[in-house]
Each structure stands twice: as C-alpha cells, then as structure tokens.
C-alpha cells in the first residue's frame, strides 16, 4: 500500500557494517553448521534489537504509525537479505536459485513490532535438497531470533493451483513482494497470478472478502463502539482498511492505493482520510506492541492511559486525556466505516456495468429500479432505497432527513451509493434544516417508529447526519467513558437505549422486564419518553453534572422537535432524574420507610413513576452485555410497587407493632402441621424488622431450616436456593450471633470467588443470627449453580467453625488475580442521618478488590457499629456499598468526632493503608474459635427497644 515515499531509513541500521560482521561470523575455520548458526544469530539479534530500539525512538519523535511499520519492514528485509546472502556464500550456493518473497501484511511493506513474518519461498520447477536445506537454515535463525515466522515453500505452479481453490492463499499471493533470491520467479508468479487467477474473478473475490469481513465483525462484537476495541480485527480497524485495499488491488488491478483517486473511486479528501486513518491506527498498534512486548491487538483499559500519553493527548475540561484519545480512535473507526460505504458504492456501480456473463456471479449487484409510493425523490433498487437523481439533496436538503424516513416506513435497506451521497452532502444540514418543522416532524416520526427506530438512528449516526442535525449529539459521538461499567461509546449507548425502549414498546422480552412491558401500553406521553431516552446522556463529557446539563439541552431541543410545554417539562424532569431510580434501588434499603417516602417525593405522580421505571430499565440494558440481570429488575420492581402504594394512598396506616403482631399470627397459622409447642417457639423467634420485610413463604422456609438445624444439634448451618430469573443465588446462614459475623461471611464468599449483591441481616430472640446473603449467579443451569452455592456454604461453615483461616483462603484466592491499575477511584465515605428515620446510613465508594467487603465490615465491627442491612453494588471497577447502622444501643451515630473517626478508618482500609495483618482480617477474625452450640442470652445486634 505504498503511498509515502518520504520515509527516512537512515540511522536504523548500518547495512554494510552488518553484512561485514555476518560474513566474518560465518567464516570461522572448521565451523560446523550449528556453530555458524549460533555465530550469525548473535550478530543478527543484536542488530535487530538495536534497529527496533531506534525505530521506537523515531515513533516517539515523529508519531508516524505507517512510517514505523515501514521502518520495521525495511529492517526485516535487510536481516533476511543479508542472511540469505551468507547462506548462499558459505553453505548452499543453490539458495540464490530460490526466491524469498514477503506475503500478508509484510508483503504490504508494513510490520508491527509483534507481527508474524510471513514468507513465501519460491522454488524453481526443478529443485534440489540443498535448496530446502538453505531454506531450513534461514528459518531456524529467524526462529532463534524470536520471530514468529509463517512460511510456505512451493513452486510457482503449486501456488497457482492452490490459489484457484483457496481465497486465503489467493490473498497472500496478491500481496507478495520480492525480498531476495531469484527475482524472476516472483515476476513469473505475479504475471501468471494476474492472468490465470485474477482475470474474470473480481466479483467472486469481492464477495468472498466481504463475507469474510462480516464474519470477522460478528466475532468481534459487530460494533465499532466497544470501549476496548480490537485495533487489528475489530470493526473500523486496520483489517477493514486492508480489506478495501485487497479488493481494490484485485478488482481494479492496481498496485498502489493512490490510483483509487484517479479511478474516481475516492475523492482527494477521502483519500486523505484513508491515509490519516491508516497512519493513526498503525501508530496505535505499534505503540501497543512496543508497550506490552507482544502482539497485543486489543486496546484494553490497562494500556489506554499509556498509549494516550505516548501519542501526546492532554486532559481538557470534562474529558481526561485517555478519553480524548479514545474519542479520536472511535472517530477514526467511523471514518473507516464511511470509506467502506463509499468504496462499496463505487464497486457496485462498476460491477453493474459488467458483461451479462458475469451477472450470474454478481446478481446482487444488478440494478432493478422501482418507484416508491408517495415519493419522487427516491427509488427502490433491489430492496434498497437510492436517489432518483444525483441532485435530490442539493435541490432540497430536507430530503436528507426524508431519505431515512422513507426507508423506515417502507422497510428498505440502504443503497451504498445513496449513503455515499448522504455523507458527501452533510454540509447542507444547516440551521435552516435543523429548525425546519417538517425535518423535525420526520425525525420524531422515525424516533418513535414502531418498526426499527434504532436501526434508522444508527444509520443516521454512521452517515454523520445525527451530529449535524443535533449538534449537541455530535459532541458525544464516539465519546467513551473510561470505566469498566460502560461497554460502548455514549452515542452507541443512547441508540441502544432507544432499541431497548422499542423492544418494550413492541411487547417483546417480557421475560426480561415484565413490569415495563405491562406498563408501556398505558403510557400516554410515549413521544416524550422516546425523546428522553435518546437524550438522557447527551451532556456527558462536560464539567457540570451531565443530568443537569442534559436537562438544559432538552429544554432547548424539545420545542424544536415539536413537543408542547407539558411534554418538554416531562422530558426535562426525566433527564434530570434519570439516575435516581437505579441508584435508589441498588444502594438503599427498600424496606426502610424513609427510602420510599424520599423517592416518592421525587417521583410525585404515577405517570412519572412509570416513565422513570421504563427509562431506567432501558438505560441499564444499554450499558453492555451482562449488566442487566433479573436481580436488578427485582429491585426496581420492589421500589416501584412500594412507591406505588404511597403515591396511590394505599400505604398502610396500621402501626408497625400491629402489623408485626399480625405477621407473627400468620406465620403461626402457616405452620399448621407442626406441634403447638413448635408453632409457638418458632413463630416467636423474630423481631419486627424480620416479620415486616420477609415474605410469609420465606418465613416458613426459614422456620423449617432453623428447626431442622436444632434437631440435628448443629451450632451453625447454611441453606442455599437459586433464583434463575433474578440471576441471584441465596445463601442463608444460621449461627450464634457475633459482632464480626457479616465480615466473616463476606470474607468466606470472597475466598470462594462469589460476588455479594445484597445482605439481609436479622437476629432471633434467642441470640442467633439469621443472615441471608445474595450472590450473583455464575452458571446458567440450576444444578451447576447449586453445586457452586453448596461449596460456598461449606466455605462459610468452615471459616465460622475455625476449620479454615480466613486470611489464608483470601490470600490464596487473590494470589493469581492481577490488580487493576488502570483505574483510580479516590475512596469516599458519606455518613447520613437523614436517609433513614432509624439508622445512620454509611455509603462507601472506591475501587473494587477481592475481600474488600470483608475488610469494610470488619472495620465497622471494630468501631462497635451494628449493621442492620447492607446493599452491595458494583459498577464495573467501582463499588458503592451502603450500610444501615446504629451503635450497640440501637441509636444513630450523631457525635461528630465519632463520625470523623468512622470516615477516617474506612478511608484507610479502602486505600489499603491498614497494616498487613488488618488488611488480611481484623483482630478477632484471624483464627475465629469454633462457635458455641448455643448462646441463648447473647445480646442481639438489634436492640429490643428498636425492634
């Protein structure tokens, strides 16, 4: 793909000196073949290391990615040429009759630091064993130098025969480049390949390479907006550009990509974009290989910061340096997509002109134009919308928006030529178009379409229309958020949110979010909901809170979109509050009355509550694969139903004491097949918090569990249950109460590799703890998950009984895990007495790590705090854990000095500043003594006054 002849190779390697040293190394008297190989290896390896060192220095100096790849290719050429010469001179003169050619990426005269060296050894039709020994010697030296060498040894005839049936071999030969040896063989191969393979098979090759590309995209996630993209194989990566060049070279019979401009396939501007994209992607790839010391192709979080620094990016208000770099990366990936569409359009036009005999092979490219009812600007070409004439957009720029609208209402795909013209007409979208009532009406019609609104939005976004039509949207196009929680760029996230809403709107996936599907038909402000979903993150990357800034943008955009004042206020409110339901559900105790009353004050009405629930579900589902699960759905449903009771006036006015007494009587009645004595004993075991928050079905199950444990004479026991719909597994622990019990259980779960999602903590009236730990499900089948849960349960029992030491099992678990150094989250601790009427709420936020929850709960125990409930929430690499606590007398923590001490101790353990012993587990937990059989008089973790 040679299109830069200005690269300077001087200073990388002194070729004459290296040739002299290699000849000297191979001329030792009485040398064996192995000794010669070792001598050459030492000289060549030193030259290679030094040459690569200088190449990296030049990359840091001039930033040229393609120049770096060319320099590495040139360096490799010199090493192979000199080695080949020495082999021919000192060992096998027949080596000069063998041609050595580069193929693959190396054949394009480009190499990344960790790339394979792909070689083709061409033998004459009459070849000898000496020739093969010469090839073998050369390969061994290259392997000993540490290169990954892909090679084939064939005659020209064998190459031609294999190329007829194998597209991969055909592609490799297409990019063959002479390095050394018998040049006539390479020339012969090129000539025969052109005449016998390429001629007349252009359409076949194009179809094969495009199908190969589609399969590669599917394997890589089929989106160019993954926040850890594959620079080589991903959508919008180097391989896509290389595919374009392969097709161009094969179909148009050209050797240099610059000729695409002369052929009219690309404009001069598009050719410059091609060059810049190629150079940028090569720079990123070369930096990745140099930094990691291997052929790393995934631009992972671990290296993004360093690559950004190497490429000279700096932090700006609202965006960190790494986020600016990644935004540039995704914009380049988008440019590659634009080039692909433009190229395919030109290719299709060219193929449509082919002779009739070829149409059998490329029937999908032949034109069959039909009128589209209701429009004269656009026509249908084999199920794809295209322009009736080239001036459709110039004549009326509103037609750019109308183009997508007509495609939507008629269910048409897009002709690449039409998309090319859209991309080249973006400058026509000005303020007149943006403020045009018809244009905005068409846009809202597409956004709220009952067909495929996300598909239309994605096509508009890829063509550059969305950023021009909604400039504020343009600011978040290709913007990534540097965290492990969000899997996509912001624009892709918003489009996927609309996709999730459309799914709910059409009544699909009711098994995933049944309540949202049930509520959607009753939503009156459907249009406002769609606008809110599309715009909810439109202000990401700004210095101020994106919810507040987004609401301000919505207040400006909604009237332009044709929404009335009431709808506008609703959209503004939804965007301003779009995080509150998710955060409340995941980080607050939903059985605490104050949680519900505070949230209900925000929601204000049932209509708003419905819309906020649906928006929240769509937002979470669009974050990335695996982020949404049934447990989050259950939390949102619980919050919705509890708030619905309050907003509809159905919240019970009966006192807690009366309701608890009624619950106790219901439990007594439910145990009808038990003896009167057991019914009385086990129905009176629980305090108010348990009776008022645990379902009767679970109360009966717990009673059976406790009675079975008592009859077996066990001091402690565990019970497990799976919830496949909620994607949660429940482990219930019965044990004598202990100040650090939750910490020990959390540590045991961490040691077993289980992520805790929630903890329900209760104390029985006879001094025992009945704690239910909810962990994230790992296996899809209940049998496998039950086995895993049983293992975790045994781990908890072993630690509680003293059979295993917690610091040791946690250390064993964490030993093989690589610490996450890519992210920095300053530890944060917030204490609030206003979030609950009865408890002090402690909220901690920091970087996640194995055993963290155990350490935090141990500190709370050290501080004589009684944990009543805990919410454990993970957002990628970040945890937000919330604890509802009191002092040992059941009172809130109001003393400012004590509050300050709590915050300091928690920040210290989160920052890993505690001593090594405490980091493993606090005193008193180092080797917990076996639990006594029964401690009936033990002080409960909840005071009776509070209960």
From TrEMBL:
Record-listed E.C. numbers: 2.7.7.59, 3.1.4.-
InterPro entries: ACT-like_dom_sf, ACT_dom, HD/PDEase_dom, HD_domain, NT_sf, PII_UdlTrfase/GS_AdlTrfase, Polymerase_NTP_transf_dom, UTase/UR
Catalyses which reaction(s): [protein-PII]-L-tyrosine + UTP = [protein-PII]-uridylyl-L-tyrosine + diphosphate; [protein-PII]-uridylyl-L-tyrosine + H2O = [protein-PII]-L-tyrosine + UMP + H(+)
Keywords: Hydrolase, Magnesium, Multifunctional enzyme, Nucleotidyltransferase, Repeat, Transferase
CDD domains: ACT_ACR-UUR-like_2, ACT_UUR-like_1, HDc, NT_GlnE_GlnD_like
Domain HD: residue ranges: 490-606
Pfam families on file: ACT (PF01842), GlnD_UR_UTase (PF08335), HD (PF01966), NTP_transf_2 (PF01909)
Uridylyltransferase: annotated span: 1-373
Listed cofactors: Mg(2+)
Molecular functions per Gene Ontology: [protein-PII] uridylyltransferase activity
Domain ACT: 730-811, 841-920
Top-rank lineage group of the source organism: Bacteria
Activity control note: Uridylyltransferase (UTase) activity is inhibited by glutamine, while glutamine activates uridylyl-removing (UR) activity.
Annotated region (Disordered), positions in chain: 922-947
HAMAP family from the UniProt entry: PII_uridylyl_transf (MF_00277)
Family per similarity comment: Belongs to the GlnD family.
Function field: Modifies, by uridylylation and deuridylylation, the PII regulatory proteins (GlnB and homologs), in response to the nitrogen status of the cell that GlnD senses through the glutamine level. Under low glutamine levels, catalyzes the conversion of the PII proteins and UTP to PII-UMP and PPi, while under higher glutamine levels, GlnD hydrolyzes PII-UMP to PII and UMP (deuridylylation). Thus, controls uridylylation state and activity of the PII proteins, and plays an important role in the regulation of nitrogen metabolism.
Domain characteristics, as noted in the entry: Has four distinct domains: an N-terminal nucleotidyltransferase (NT) domain responsible for UTase activity, a central HD domain that encodes UR activity, and two C-terminal ACT domains that seem to have a role in glutamine sensing.
Record-given protein name: Bifunctional uridylyltransferase/uridylyl-removing enzyme
Taxonomic source organism: Pseudorhizobium tarimense
Gene name, Swiss-Prot/TrEMBL: glnD
């Amino acid at each position: 793909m040679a299109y830069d002849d200005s690269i300077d190779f001087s200073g990388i390697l002194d070729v004459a000196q290296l040739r002299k040293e290699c000849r000297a190394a191979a001329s030792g008297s009485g040398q064996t073949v192995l000794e010669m190989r070792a001598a050459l290896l030492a000289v060549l390896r030193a030259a290679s290391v030094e040459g690569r060192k200088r190449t990296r220095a030049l990359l840091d100096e001039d930033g040229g990615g393609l120049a770096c790849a060319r320099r590495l290719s040139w360096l490799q050429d010199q090493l192979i040429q000199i080695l080949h010469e020495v082999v021919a001179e000192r060992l096998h003169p027949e080596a000069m009759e063998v041609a050595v050619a580069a193929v693959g990426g190396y054949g394009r005269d480009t190499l990344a630091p960790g790339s394979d060296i792909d070689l083709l050894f061409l033998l004459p039709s009459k070849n000898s064993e000496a020739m093969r020994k010469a090839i073998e010697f050369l390969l061994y030296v290259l392997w000993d130098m540490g290169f990954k060498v892909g090679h084939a040894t064939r005659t020209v005839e064998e190459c031609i025969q294999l190329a007829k049936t194998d597209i991969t071999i055909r592609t490799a030969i297409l990019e063959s480049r002479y390095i050394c040896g018998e040049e006539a063989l390479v020339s012969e191969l090129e000539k025969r390949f052109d005449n016998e393979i390429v001629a007349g098979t252009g359409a076949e090759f194009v179809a094969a390479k495009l199908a190969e590309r589609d399969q590669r995209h599917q394997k890589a996630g089929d989106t160019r907006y993954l926040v850890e993209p594959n620079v080589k194989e991903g959508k919008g990566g180097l391989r896509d550009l290389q595919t374009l060049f392969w097709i161009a070279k094969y179909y148009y019979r050209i050797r240099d990509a610059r000729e695409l401009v002369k052929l009219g396939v690309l404009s001069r501007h598009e050719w410059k974009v091609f060059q810049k994209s190629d150079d940028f992607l090569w720079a990123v790839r070369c930096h990745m290989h140099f930094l990691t010391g291997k052929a790393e192709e995934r631009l992972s979080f671990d290296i993004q910061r360093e690559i950004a620094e190497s490429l000279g990016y700096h932090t700006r208000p609202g965006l960190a340096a790494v986020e600016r770099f990644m935004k540039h990366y995704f914009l380049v990936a988008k440019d590659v997509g634009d080039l692909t569409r433009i190229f395919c359009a030109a290719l299709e036009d060219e193929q449509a002109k082919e002779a009739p005999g070829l149409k059998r092979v490329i029937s999908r490219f032949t034109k069959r134009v039909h009128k589209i009812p209701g429009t004269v600007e656009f026509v249908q070409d084999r199920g794809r919308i295209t322009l009736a004439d080239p001036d459709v957009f110039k004549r009326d720029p509103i037609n750019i928006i109308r183009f997508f609208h007509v495609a939507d209402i008629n269910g048409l795909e897009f002709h690449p030529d039409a998309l090319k013209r859209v991309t080249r007409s973006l400058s026509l979208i000005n303020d007149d178009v943006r403020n045009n009532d018809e244009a905005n009406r068409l846009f809202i019609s597409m956004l709220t379409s009952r067909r495929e609104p996300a598909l239309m939005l994605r096509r508009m976004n890829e063509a550059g229309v969305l950023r021009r039509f909604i400039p504020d949207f343009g600011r978040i196009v290709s913007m990534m958020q540097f965290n492990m929680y969000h899997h996509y760029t912001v624009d892709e996230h918003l489009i996927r949110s609309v996709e999730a809403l459309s799914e709910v709107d059409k009544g699909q996936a009711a098994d995933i979010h049944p309540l949202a599907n049930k509520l959607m038909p009753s939503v009156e402000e459907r249009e406002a909901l769609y606008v809110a979903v599309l715009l909810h993150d439109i202000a990401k990357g700004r210095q101020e809170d994106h919810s507040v800034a987004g609401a301000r943008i919505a207040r400006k955009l909604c009237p332009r979109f044709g929404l009335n004042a009431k709808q506008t206020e609703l959209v503004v409110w939804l965007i301003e509050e779009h995080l509150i339901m998710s955060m409340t559900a995941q980080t607050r105790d939903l059985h605490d009355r104050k949680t519900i009353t505070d949230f209900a004050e925000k929601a204000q009405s049932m209509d708003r509550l419905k819309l906020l629930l649906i928006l929240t579900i769509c937002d979470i589902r669009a974050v990335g694969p695996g982020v949404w699960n049934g447990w989050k759905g259950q939390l949102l449903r619980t919050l919705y139903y509890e708030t619905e009771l309050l907003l509809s006036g159905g919240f019970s006015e009966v006192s807690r004491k009366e309701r608890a007494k009624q619950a106790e009587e219901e439990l007594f009645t439910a145990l009808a097949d038990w003896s009167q004595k057991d019914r009385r004993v086990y129905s009176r075991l629980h305090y108010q918090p348990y009776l008022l928050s645990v379902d009767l079905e679970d109360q009966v199950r717990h009673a059976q569990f406790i009675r079975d444990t008592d009859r077996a004479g066990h001091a402690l026991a565990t019970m497990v249950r799976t919830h496949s719909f909620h994607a949660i597994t429940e482990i219930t622990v019965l044990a004598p109460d202990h100040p650090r019990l939750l910490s020990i259980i959390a540590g045991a779960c961490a040691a077993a590799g289980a992520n805790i999602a929630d903890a329900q903590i209760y104390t029985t009236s006879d001094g025992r703890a009945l704690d239910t730990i909810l962990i994230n499900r790992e296996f899809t089948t209940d049998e496998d998950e039950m086995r895993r849960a049983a293992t975790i349960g045994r781990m908890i029992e072993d630690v509680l009984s003293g059979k295993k030491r917690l610091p040791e099992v946690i250390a064993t678990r964490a030993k093989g895990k690589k610490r996450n150094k890519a992210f920095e989250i300053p530890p944060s601790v917030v204490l609030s007495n206003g979030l609950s009427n009865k408890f002090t709420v402690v909220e901690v936020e920091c970087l996640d790590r194995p055993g963290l929850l155990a350490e935090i709960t141990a500190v709370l125990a050290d501080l004589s705090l009684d944990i009543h409930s805990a919410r454990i929430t993970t957002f990628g690499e970040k945890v937000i854990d919330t604890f509802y606590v009191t002092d040992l007398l059941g009172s809130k923590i109001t003393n400012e000095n004590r509050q300050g001490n709590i915050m300091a101790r928690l920040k210290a353990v989160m920052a890993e500043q505690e001593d090594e012993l405490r980091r493993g587990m606090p005193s008193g937990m180092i080797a917990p003594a076996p639990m006594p059989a029964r401690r009936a008089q033990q002080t409960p973790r909840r005071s009776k006054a509070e209960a």
